Amino acid sequence: MLNRQSVLTFFLLIVPILLLPGAVGIMDQRFMQRIATVLCINLILVLGLQVFMGNSGILSFAHIGFMGIGAYTSAVLAMPVRMKSMALPDLYSCLATIELSPILAILIGALVAGLVAALVSYPLMRLSDAAAVITSFALLVVIHTIMVHWSALTNGPRTLFGLKSATNLYLAAGSAVVMVALALFFKESRAGVLLRAVRDDEIAAVGMGAHLSRLRWYGFILSALMAGFAGGLWAHFITSFSPNAFYLKETFVILGMLIIGGSLTVSGAVFGTFAVTIAYELLRFTESSINIAQLFPKPVVGLTEVVLACAMIATLILKPGGIMGAREIGHWNIFRKFFPDKNV
Amino acid sequence: MTGQIVQFGIDALSLGSLYALMALGLVIVYGILKLVNFAYGELVMVTGYTLFLLNGSPLPWLVMALVAVIIAILTGISTELVAFKPVREKSVTAVLITSFAFSTLLQNFVLLFISPRARQVPLPDIFTQTVELAGVIVPLRNLLTIACAFIMLGLFSWALKKTVLGIALRAAASQFRMARMLGVPANLIITTAFAISGLFAGVVGILWLGRIGSVVPGIGLEPLLVAFIATVIGGMRSLQGAVVGGFLLAFVDVSLNYLLPQHLLQFRDAFTFSFVILFLLMKPDGLIPGPASGERT
To answer: Does a structural domain hold residue B85?
Structure first.
């Protein structure tokens, strides 16, 4: 069960998320709205990655693939019927007449992503270290290949269009709050604690009866569910997208957020997402200002990624656990003084 | 019928040679450091862009190719300095991420300073000529690839067995700590491993470019994946395993090319990788498990 510190962590972490709609409301600008919404969606993705990576210690590249599954599933289910004949002319007839409400479609998308993860990943959970990472990378490639070539469902490598916009900032921020709670709850749950025990000392934990592959499997499914949910939200925000949105570039950004913030804690995921988003938008602004001012003969592309890559390497060299380190924000000594834990 | 068999044999053998060289370049680093180099594919990219930048210079093509391979070797060594050395003692995941970040860094430098679009590389005529062999028309570059791979594999295995550095490399791969105690200089061995890795990637890069003719910033992804999968099939820690894995993967790829109907052919990669995942279920350590030690630095 959640102890006092975790509850405190939860309330401290949702403060910045709840402040977002207010801050954007004051500034009242469309592009701020966009940045804040994408931030909340990215936050859900980063939290999902943290659930698996933070607790099991295994890097997963497949995460963004599940985001793609959630996005395409929700898109196919929620697209207006008359748009389907244009956007997806080869769609199977049983799906062509369905039009669900976007929220329901997003939830089903998350479930499908979780289901796919459950079916595919169980055997992979036996692998550790490098082999696990390489197979998760292979899994991302498999999912990407299928998305690019299953034209009947995804419109192939071309852009899928015709979705109604359904995600707004309030929905995204609300979902992010729920996901923070979910990630914290998993961390403190029996499965989460055991999973971290396996991470820290595999032989001892397994010797005491922890079921290694099943524990990792639970974490992986929850992580895929969250990624699928974020994918659905994103699809109904951006309304037209192609499979390339769910590949290495996005993986890199999400991973960068988690690594810089610190993958061991939920606080790290939240902090990293906010910090990297702000830095990213500032850099992108610089990049486009340079291009508009035509300081260089060619347009500048890729500057943001270069800086993010350097920041990731620097973080891992200087502070391998990320900026937030190993303790959740609610466990910091400064808060311990004000909210003493009666259980300890 | 014999024609088809010859065609199939040469296709599989030449692709296999290429895959085996790629896998070997990756596994030489993994074998010693137990670290996966995600920036390995970018060495191929660097080779391609060096060739592109040298295009139009008065140098003969062979010298340009040599320069490109040397640049790949230097990039390999700089990978070690930037992405590996500072985090070598930390977790496996940390090194994976730094090398992934370094690969993104290199790619975006190219985007920033050259162009996101494909660029032609200079190639001599030998890469486009064909010869007739047992009644089949075979591209000369396939035969060139096979010859190149066998020469390199031969030289490499000779160097591993007979030279002092080669023996030290093998000792470090099986028991790194013990080798260090017996006076094998760790930093020299690690740098050598990265240099050899760069050499293989450079040669593979030239042969790979000979097949496709142009270079894009994302060119490294496919060689990287191939090398990953071949090493996983072969057994992550064994050099022979990498070669066997490379040839096996090429055999599966070429067979699927011949067997799959047209509308499924586009899913070939998905089939190949699913095969790999299934294979790992049965043999998690790969075909040739290699020395049993797992310790690093």
So the answer is: yes
pLDDT digits (tens, 9 = 90+) for B47-103: 999 989 888 778 888 899 999 999 999 999 998 888 888 887 777 778 888 888 899
Number of domains in chain B: 1
CATH number at residue B138: 1.10.3470
Inside any domain, residue B291: no
* Residue in B30, B21, B8 with CA at minimum distance from that of residue B207: B21
Whole-model pTM: value is 0.87
Residue-range definition of the domain harbouring residue B255: 2-282
Q: Which of B97, B111, B274 sits opposite A142 (nearest CB)?
A: B274
CB contact under 8 A, B280 and A302: no
- With CB atoms and an 8 Å threshold, state whether A142 touches B116: no
The amino acid sitting at B133 is: L
Are the beta carbons of A232 and A288 closer than 8 angstroms? no
Quote the pLDDT of residue A340.
63
- Residue B287 counted as domain residue: no
Is B104 part of a structural domain of the chain? yes
pLDDT, tens only, A216-233 = 999 999 999 999 999 999
Taken as a whole, chain B contains a residue count of: 297
C-alpha distances (whole Å) from A234 to each of A32, A44, A103, A342 are 16, 11, 12, 42
Which residues of A fall within a CB distance of 8 Å from B108?
301-303, 305-306, 309
Query: Residue B108 and residue A149: Cβ atoms within 8 Å?
Result: no
What's the gap between Cα A278 and its chain centre?
17
From residue A319, how far is each of A200, A263, A275, A315, A324 by CA, in Å? 19, 12, 16, 5, 9
Residue B137, beta-bridge partner list? B132
